[in-house]
Specification:
heterodimer, A: alpha/beta, Beta Polymerase, domain 2, six-stranded mixed β-sheet, 8 strands, B: alpha/beta, four-stranded parallel β-sheet, about 10% strand
């Protein structure tokens, strides 16, 4: 029997995988006492489920329902006044959950904190736009790319893909080269569905060359009229060179004779 | 242009040059091709360089226009995303006949390296293309050469647009 491949992850995979390869993991360190991060953890109290330090950066796992409260505490009590990034990671195939992260920056202390929470597929998250204006576009992009709804967002609308797009491209279940809707999007939108047969499917093979195509590619060396049928052989025509610049050097023998 | 050399002194002093209507019209069309500024990605930088002083498109009678109503040629320079394809077609429709299209660079020709869901795999899916210009990105000399090839193509055409076998297979 053929080896089963999971259908819920259609993204490109490595051709060869080493069975004994172990993914390297960034070491996680404990939060040491009497540091800046220890104060942050103390300020959060029971809101933080799990805290550790990765590459000099505090990671805080929280409950998804308490994200606004946690970020408000970090902003007002710990000086994290900038939300530099916010997005999600698709772990639906593995855990049935999205992992959301908020990347915060304390400019005065030069410290960074990542707040991480997990939500189920159809759950919504509270917007943090009242706290950080920069999260506005980030949350719209998360909605666009993953379909995660954000409660109380001022203008939750697609930001990168067109408004009438179907599907959320950053999900692992979304094929890289697009689904049926994506592959016909421009044809359907401009000409209508009845033009699909005329225009034909997308060519995704970069090495494809149609030898007898005279509508899109001219022949090298000699010309063929547009749309001519050349499946039974081409009519050879001599190559035309510019008469203005090219000199016929064969003619010069006559001159040589005269000089003699 | 003139097919027959006229010796003004011998032909009763008349300033006459004999030619055909096709040649006269195509002389005008091919030597004042006004392209639409349509830079979509990094090819636009090369297109701008072609228009600027060092390479100087103006000496070919090619002056970039910011309005499709005043343009003859559409140089699609760069990656055309599916979201933008609708607007590219609208701009093409707004151009007045006769009009020609140069697809500049790998991305516009075939989608290039963007073999993804969001990129149009060749602008000829939505717009009839006259010249495909390879390169990533093509140098200004290449764009100049493409324009010269387009001029050559126009000079072969008939002045009557109805007689020309154009690639208007999509929509009229």
């Amino acid at each position: 029997m053929r080896k089963y491949t999971p259908k819920d992850n259609v993204q490109a995979k490595a051709y060869y995988t080493d069975r004994f390869w172990v993914a390297p993991r960034v070491p996680r360190e404990e939060v040491e006492a009497a540091t800046h991060f220890a104060k942050v953890v103390a300020a959060l109290g029971s809101l933080a489920k799990e805290t550790y330090i990765e590459i000099g950066q505090l990671v805080i796992h929280i409950n998804a329902g308490e994200n606004f409260q946690v970020l408000k505490t970090l902003k007002e009590q710990c000086g994290y006044t900038q939300c530099s990034e916010q997005s999600a990671v698709d772990y639906l195939a593995k855990d049935g959950e999205f992992e959301l992260f908020y990347q915060l920056l304390n400019i005065h202390e030069a410290k960074r904190v990542r707040v991480v929470c997990r939500i189920k597929k159809d759950e919504a998250i509270e917007s943090i736009v009242p706290l950080f204006k920069s999260a506005n576009f980030a949350e719209r992009e998360m909605f666009d790319m993953f379909g995660i709804k954000v409660n109380n967002h001022p203008f939750l609308k697609r930001i990168i893909m067109p408004d009438d797009w179907e599907g959320h491209p950053l999900l692992k279940t979304y094929p890289l080269q697009g689904d049926e809707f994506a592959s016909w999007y421009e044809v359907d939108k401009i000409f209508g569905k009845e033009y699909r047969d005329i225009i034909g499917p997308e060519n995704r093979d970069p090495a494809r060359i149609d030898r007898y195509d005279t509508k899109r590619f001219s022949r090298i060396g000699y010309e063929v009229p547009f749309g001519a049928d050349i499946s039974k052989g081409e009519t050879k025509q001599p190559i035309e060179y510019s008469e203005t610049f090219m000199t016929n050097y064969n003619k010069s023998s006559k001159q040589l004779d005269e000089r003699k | 242009m003139a097919q027959h050399q006229v010796n003004y002194a011998s032909s009763a002093g008349l300033p006459i040059a004999l030619t055909s209507v096709d040649k006269l019209v195509n002389w005008g069309r091919s030597n004042s091709l006004w392209p639409l500024t349509y830079g979509l990605a990094c090819c636009a930088i090369e297109m701008m360089a072609t228009g600027a002083g060092r390479y100087d498109f103006d000496r070919m009678g090619t002056i970039f226009r910011a309005s499709p109503r005043q343009a003859d040629v559409m140089i699609l320079a760069g990656t055309l995303s599916k979201k933008h394809s609708e607007f590219a077609r609208r701009l093409y429709d707004q151009m007045t006949e006769p009009k020609w299209v140069i697809s500049m660079g790998s991305c516009a020709n075939t989608g290039g390296m963007f073999n993804t869901y969001a990129t149009v795999q060749g602008v000829d899916r939505i717009i009839p293309v006259d010249i495909y210009l390879p390169g990533c990105a093509p140098r200004p000399e290449t764009l100049q050469y493409a324009l010269m090839m387009l001029q050559k193509k126009i000079r072969r055409e008939s002045a009557d647009m109805k007689k020309n076998k154009k690639q208007n297979l999509r929509l009229v």
